[in-house]
Amino acid sequence: MVRDALIFDAVRTPRGRVRREGGTLSDVPSYELLAGLLTELSRRGLPAELVDDVIVGVSTPVGEQGADLARVAISAADWPDSVSGGVVSRMCCSGLDAIASGAAQVLSGGGELVVAGGAESMSRTPMFADNPAFALDENLADATGFVTIGVAADFMAARFGISRAELDDWAVRSHALSLTASVPASVVAVERDGETLLGRDEGARPGLSAAALAELPALCESDPTWERALSRFAFEGLESAPAGRHTVATAPQLADAASAVLLGTAAGGHAAGLKPRGRIVSWAHAAVRSPGLWAGEHAARKALARAELGVGDIAVAELNESFAVTPVLLGRQLGIAPDLVNAYGGALALGHPLGASGGILLATAIERLGAVGGGYGLLVIPAALGLATAVVVEAFG
Model-level pTM? Predict the structure, then answer.
């Protein structure tokens, strides 16, 4: 029997900007953000007792995000005790990895209905709060090639000849598109005690110009890990740190958010009275020598090949703005027309909530595809240590 990993729904919270003085969602733990989405899926008609598993991507699974965040969210949403849940962690790729894992369960016969997504409160559990060995142990850092992520982004821009002006222009574009986009239907307001804490994404700034961004100081020009990057990539011909290409404007904003995608079989959807909106077509993981950040191209090409599709078949691309260099380079490498990429803006304006980002990209892609009558979408997220994940989706017209 042929099985498809069908997409029945995709919801997400707004992205709340992280601020030093406390962001809009800084008092809301990640399990509560996720529980609100599970509750919304029930409100939309999902019989929770039919869900076989909940898989959550978390980049920093420590503290209140530690152990099994999925199971905690299930309890907080008052879902039945019979619903299982677990966590996957592949740093920035965690959310896409959770979706791929959920699709694999469905395709293999391991579940008829699976919720997959991610959650991250960067206000409450900052990046590297788990004290990863590769960032703390100098010997291990040398072996893994770990450098500050901004250094890796600058190095990538220098290696592929992408100027600071191109990066600044992309940031201006991201903010402008974010400001003109309407609130996506997938966004579920974060509420507490009957009060709406946040109803739309934060972060986009009006009136941003390339001239203004050109005045900003470089983010990582004097970073001490440049020495490791140059040593690791001596064969690339760079003898000294190139002038800093990225600034705070071309780096992703920190954000708090959660996402949830309901996947399943036709039989599972029929039992729940749900109509499919699309399907997961394929996915792929890839890696390059760290601290390289260009594995996205490899992951994308592998996922497209597995889907038996070409770049010309893609109607929508959601390329995570991990730094401005990511969508600029990946679009160039794959030959994707810029107007197909991140048409509602991206993480430079609205934030990259790590584990939650994969589900956000999927929800956005399905909505964008629905607006043009369906078709195929490509989602790509790179991560530290040279990793990347890509997913191909199809939305039904």
Answer: 0.96
Q: Which of 14, 64, 9, 12 is nearest to 196 (CA)?
A: 14
Stronger pLDDT, 242 or 319, i.e. the higher one: 319
Query: What count of other Cβ atoms lies within 10 Å of the Cβ of residue 175?
Result: 22
* Separation CA 389–CA 286 (nearest Å): 6
- Which residue type is seen at 165? A
Beta bridge partner(s), residue 53: 84, 114
CB 226 within 8 A of CB 241: yes
Q: What is the pLDDT of residues 87-120, one digit of tens each?
A: 999 999 999 999 999 999 999 999 999 999 999 9
The encoded tokens of residue 245 equal 């290409």
CA distance 34 to 94: 15
**Beta-strand runs (E) in 82-218:** 84-88, 113-121, 190-192, 195-198
Residue 327 near residue 346 (C-beta atoms within 8 A): yes
Pull the structure tokens for residue 158. Answer: 């220098």
Dihedral sign (CA 120, 125, 127, 129): negative
Identify whether the C-beta of residue 377 lies closer than 8 Å to the C-beta of residue 368: yes
